[in-house]
Design goal:
single chain; 2 helices; 2 strands
């Protein structure tokens, strides 16, 4: 499971983006390595999903009063994201 952050790195996202860039590289490499065996690899990269993840600080504490920094038009519901992920897996 990856993220749009495997393609876009923004200020303040260094550790998260780095982990997603690495995951993308792993998926791309494994895809080539496993293709001769008929095994495919899916790199699932949802964009912004409407969850509380952006309200959790570095110590894991939830701040429900923090304003959502992502424009509502860019957010997808958890249900939509889950349906798209299941479709990709199938």
């Amino acid at each position: 499971m990856s993220s749009v952050k495997s393609y876009i790195a923004l200020k303040g996202d260094s550790p998260y983006s780095m982990s997603k860039f690495a995951l993308r590289a792993l998926c791309e490499s494994l895809s080539q390595e496993l293709e001769p065996y008929g095994i495919s690899v899916s790199h699932i990269c949802p964009a912004y999903v409407a969850t509380e993840i952006r309200q959790i600080d570095n110590q894991g504490k939830l701040h429900s009063d923090w304003k959502e920094p992502i424009s509502p038009g860019l957010l997808m519901s958890c249900e939509t994201a889950a349906k798209q992920i299941v479709k990709a897996i199938k």
